[in-house]
Amino acid sequence: MTFNTALDSIKTYEAGLPIELVVREYGIKENEVVKLASNENPLGASKNAINAIIQAAQNAHLYPDDSMYALKEGLAKHFNIPNNTLIIGAGSDQIIEFCIHAKANHTSKILMAKTTFAMYEIYAKAVGAEIIRTPSHTHNLQEFLECYKIHKPAVIFLCIPNNPLGECLGSKEVFDFLKHIDSNCLVIIDGAYQEYAKAKDSNKALDPKALIDTFSNVIYTGTFSKAYGLGGMRIGYGIANVEIIQALSKLRPPFNITTPSLAAAIAALKDEEHIQKSMQNNLEQMPLFEDFAKQNSFNFTPSYTNFITYYFETPLDSKEISEHLFKKGMIVRNLTSYGLNAIRITIGTPKQNEKFFTLFNTYLKKK
Question: Where's the Aminotransferase class I/classII large domain (predicted)?
Fold first, then answer.
């Protein structure tokens, strides 16, 4: 059977390894496995969100409200925006996919950082678009501007903060950059980790309302998978001017969000106390990972997310390290698929983090 030739150049996205795999492969008890690979909230979801899921499941036989009115109202209030500037997706990934299909084709160029979220490239290549990457691994807006002037891309991706490295552009430099971009170029700002950036440094916080009020060509995407602890519910959103939202809505399949997912997101959005606890845990635990890196002479990128990336020099090998930890029931993300000798570690609870440090120290002593 033949398939779309655009698929020939696409590598399958490597998701974080699941807990179930460790249980099956090594017989480790599920409650003894620690997963610090996929940037999930280690505190879990809000109890209010979990209760909402249970209640909503009673109506599992009914299709969800396809207008998603209640969630849009909640987000509109949260961001002080009109609800017609919102679109809801099965994770923010789906919103990004809508953007690519709405704006790009085989004649288009799409600009992104050298190292950033892998799905940008996958969605771009699926429509046959040409990928343009900046020279630097992290976001360098001068390089972005130079590439923009040369290539005139149809779409620009800015991941703020950046996954999988953790660095974060400041809001002022983002706004200054956007002033140089033509209104027909769609700029997708991926704010999946913005809650963490805002909690750490207010200068890194992006205001979606100010973005779309100032720039008609910008869409801001957010998610409930990270800070809100609802990765298993798969729900995200996009915020943009009405023209963009109307275009993307033509691509949204009916009932793309489940009833329990909608209920969970609505409840989670209201539970500010849970978000505050999640931010506090992250801010308190992140310095421990930075100190561990310094003690062992690992390079790392100062992170504005809920993860940190360690870079290694020979003879340390990220694949070997990841496999060693995996066999001990500790799942981290190996970044060799990004061309890096590095691992990305989600910031867990104090108990989870202590186990990581202990296991890693044991490995290092054997080297």
Answer: 32-356
